[in-house]
Design brief:
Length: 211
């Protein structure tokens, strides 16, 4: 399967962060996660547009990018966010965390399957369509039920947690690109794009690798 990660989307990520009430450097944990949700939702809409236009190349780029975003997002939640919340959670919030863990298993399994299925396989689009539904359900439960309860945890420093998550996010994205076979200069270009929010008309370009 051909791997592609549009660098322009990383620039878009930073510009979106800059337009929020907090900058990327001070974004708290929940704002960081909801920002991820919004970005993935845009990718879902891009997939639906490409599907209507029967643009196979665009669909593949969107699916691969969405899977990369979801993989990084999942690791952030499981490694940092959920453990920090679980330490202070009451029984109701722990139940929500347990449900989220189960949902992550389903999402992670589909992301893994999509990395192995070829574009011309009839199940390729079907798997991604199911993935979109799982993610939308997961996002709705987090934003409507879990996150409001987490904000009420007085001893949880969401700003400090957000800083750790942002640093880990950048590290994971670099690892993802490296493992996918991107050259060192492309990885550095991607990292530079993440902090170049002051470039208002940066054009999207795609770096590719084959395996």
């Amino acid at each position: 399967m051909r791997l592609a990660f549009p660098v322009g989307l990383i620039t878009q990520r930073t510009k979106h962060m800059a337009s929020t009430s907090k900058s990327a450097a001070t974004m708290d944990a929940i704002t960081l996660l909801t920002d991820d949700h919004a970005r993935v939702n845009k990718l879902f809409k891009a997939f639906q547009k490409a599907e209507k236009e029967d643009d196979l190349e665009a669909m593949e780029d969107v699916i691969t990018t969405a899977c990369a975003e979801l993989d990084v997002h999942s690791k952030l939640e499981k490694e940092l966010f959920y453990p920090a919340v679980r330490e202070q959670a009451d029984e109701e919030l722990r139940d929500l965390l347990a449900e989220a863990d189960v949902e992550h298993e389903s999402v992670d399994a589909l992301v893994h399957k999509l990395s192995e299925v070829k574009l011309d396989d009839e199940m390729y689009k079907a798997n991604f369509t199911v993935l979109m539904e799982y993610v939308k359900h997961h996002v709705k439960e987090e934003e409507k039920e879990m996150f409001p309860k987490v904000r009420k945890l007085k001893r949880l420093d969401l700003d400090a947690l957000g800083e750790r998550m942002r640093a880990r996010q950048e590290e994971l994205m670099g690892d993802y690109l490296r493992e996918a076979g991107y050259a060192a200069e492309d990885i550095e270009a991607a990292k530079a794009a993440m902090v170049a929010a002051n470039k208002p008309r940066a054009k999207a370009r795609t770096i590719r690798a084959h395996r």
